[in-house]
Please model this.
Amino acid sequence: MLKKMLVGIVLGSFLLLPMLAGAQEKYPTKAIELVVPFAAGGSTDVLARLVAKYAPKYFDKPLVVVNKPGGGGITGTEGVVRSKPDGYSLFIGYGSGHDLVTPHFQKMPYDPFKDLLPVCRLSIHSIVMIIRGDAPYKTMKELVEWGKKKPQVTASVSTKAGSVDITFQAVGKATGLKMVTVPFRGGAESVTAIVGGQTDCGGNHPSEVISHIKAKRLIPIAVALENRDPAIPDVPTFKELGYNVVAVGSVKGVAAPKGTPPEVIRYLAERFKKVCDDQEFVKSMKDIGQPVMYQNPQEFGKFLKEGFDQYGKMIKEFNIKLE
Amino acid sequence: MIFSARIRLFKRRKSIEKWDRVTGYILLAVGVITAWSSTSLAMGKMRHPGPGFLPFGLALILIALSIALITKSWKREEQSVPFWPERGWVRPLLGVGIFLLYAVLLPPLGFILTTFFFLIIWMWGIERIRWATILPISIGVTAVLYFIFSYFLEVPLPAGFLSL
Amino acid sequence: MGEFLGMFQGLASGFDIAFTLTNLTFALIGAVLGTMVGILPGLGPSATISLLLPLSFKIGSPVTSIIMMAGIFYGAMYGGSTTSILVNIPGEAASVVTCIDGYQMALKGRAGPALGIAAIGSFIAGTIGVLGLTFVAPPLAEFALKFGPPEYFSLTLFGLLMATLLGGGSILKGLIMVVLGLLLGSVGLDPISGAIRFTWGLHMLQEGIDFVTLAMGMFGVGEIFYNLEKVLKTELVTRKVTHLWPTLKDWADSKWAVIRGSFIGFFIGILPGGGAVISSLVSYAVEKRVSKSPEEFGKGAIQGVAGPESANNAAASASFIPLLTLGIPGNAAIAMIFAALLIQGVQPGPFLITEKPEIFWGVVASMYIGNVMLLILNLPMVGLWVQLLRVPYSILAPIVVLFCCVGVYSIRNTVFDIYVMGIFGVIGYILRKVDLEPGPMILAFVLGPILERAIRQALLISAGSPLIFFTRPISGALMGVLILFIVLQVFFNIRQKKKKMNP
Model:
């Protein structure tokens, strides 16, 4: 009996050895997957790929971008939530519509705040209202006047019940216009729609429309942020114009599944900060209309919660419903 | 001129009345079930169509079309043709069966083994090919497929318990 | 005049750039990869481009990486026709129409000429497409912007109904298949409202049914199951291949088809959306109409291969236009290239031509070269692909089934998709038995989501009024033509019936 126990202990300790060895290896030991829960070519995807491009300078292992679109962002994110919390599967785009807006309307298969840990914030994609360059109205005021005489004002938005959609419904209520949001398949398609004049106005992120603004095809007339967006500093906020539509837009950060060890989070946050401080990275981001706005894990977590509550307030105040 | 020649875009096979009628009934059932389950989805209004809008409309059209099919088959003369002449169902059934077996065995046995056995069983069971031909082809094809998909395209194929 | 001069200058500088060793090599790599990917059902150009995106940064130069990716894209259009002709399995949606006459030609031992004319037609169309890209890019792209939801709805409806009306066989059955295809397309998450439709709780179906799974099931596996009914000994087809190359007569027969197809593909390909698919459809319809012997279609008419294959290649070239001039990607593969450009610091848009002319002209020039490369790659290889047909069907059948299985597995790495494909295989088998052709169903399946989205968006814009489809000029014109066709067809049917009654 004693002999058996002894054998068991000896054998058992052999099994422990690899575990001990594993614990010694430093993170990361292989490539890290950066999951973009949206289609390629969108603003989040571009951000991810740009970060991945500069990452090798600062990360010990490469970042690999993977697209998992579907369900307005929920499908891909859920994949990360359910993955092993070992720091090799991260979600980029944390703070988008499906994290801050959708939970107000429908039951989610996971809790964006409890099941995910904030790593850091990378950028904010604000929501800007744009009109065609040749429209019969040139400012927000003129649009409202024009719109009051119409049975409805159409606005092209990227996803139904996304951050843009909700924000525009709030604008409608705040201005007293009958605002009908027309959803398209993502940012690129909705831009095509407004450029083509299919709708009266459109809601997009600055990075999606910056080239059109430069070419004077589109005119930005208002942005839904607390303060002006550094990427488009000449555009007044809705607040300045007298409409209390303030939101955080679509926040783009990185998240890891719940249970990821704190050393991993710390490593990631540090390295991402280094990328955000890289001059070339900042310039590249500026060229495509995405401001670099780094925030460390603690502040980011707080920021997200505030953003979530802010959307909640907006929804309540303007009595926005999902049709 | 243009409409006179009603030519086939797709290959045409003989149209049998009895089969048409059965098909019509089945389609009618599909239409009704679809229409019914669409009602649980929001229809929306004309100015704001919902998810149930199109499926419901399509289901109604399907019902109409299947009724048309059924009535058309009544008008023609009956021809009695067996659905599967001369036990013709044997080989297709075997094919489906082996296919199913492949899908079932793929996760536990892994790609290489399952593919290999699939080829052997199919070629021997259905086509009755000589063993001398079966073996080299099975090995060759398995190897080529593995090379293309696993090595070249880096698709993660099921490894099975032998971790191949 | 000065403008043309500027364009020629630009093009000349473009060729300068395209002819460097690096760029030529990557163009070749792209073309070869694209052809391979087009031949393999299950992996599309979009997936391949995304796999290679990280590689593209290592390359460093934006011109080079786009040259490679463009090569993959139109290479896939060349390759897709190969499996369509040889084994009646479309490599991707744009090759579905090629299956019809292409496979018939193969069954008649004319696979060589079919592949040959597909390659030549693709080359000519591709070149015409790039020419168009060169000279008419900016004004054309502006026109395409006028296409909003009502126009998309009318165009898609037009395409679908044309397919049924001209399909021959029972119109009733064709319509049934279209409706079924549309319904199948609505399975999964509704993109507009997010509601889950017809999935009965199966998580795997949430994204809807994948096209490739459906197509390989109904066309590939289904055909094989159906053919299993007939016993081996009486070989279904004479697999002797008579000529490896298209004859002069073939060429004479198809040359107009190629020209027509190129223009059709070009104009439809500019439109963001289902460019290559719809253009191949329309081209087929047009060829049948203008043909002196329309009864040949469906039995191996070479125009039925030449036209659509030219159309889809021209459409592929044309889909670069909105990207390079307006900065708007028109489909998934182009969106990847769009992202690649952005990451490399290039903003595709109206400023691209002026701020970074080397990229625009470099890519355009390489597309000319790429087309030549693909022609060279594909024509000699025709002999190689035809050798495949020498293999007895009995051995080919399980290999094809396997290919489909692995191909379908590679999409989502789940065995579930294999089961789904199997189910569609059985359905495809039974449908063939009852004279319901899967063709219109698949086309409707692909066009369905576009149709639904368009009709819902259009009704939102029009505040519920269906009149919008008729009051807007482009949409109205399309609907008008459509109604004209239907009326004429009905009228003609009645006349035929009367003729039958009074001989």
User: Anything to note?
Assistant: Chain A has two domains: 30-125+249-317, 128-223.
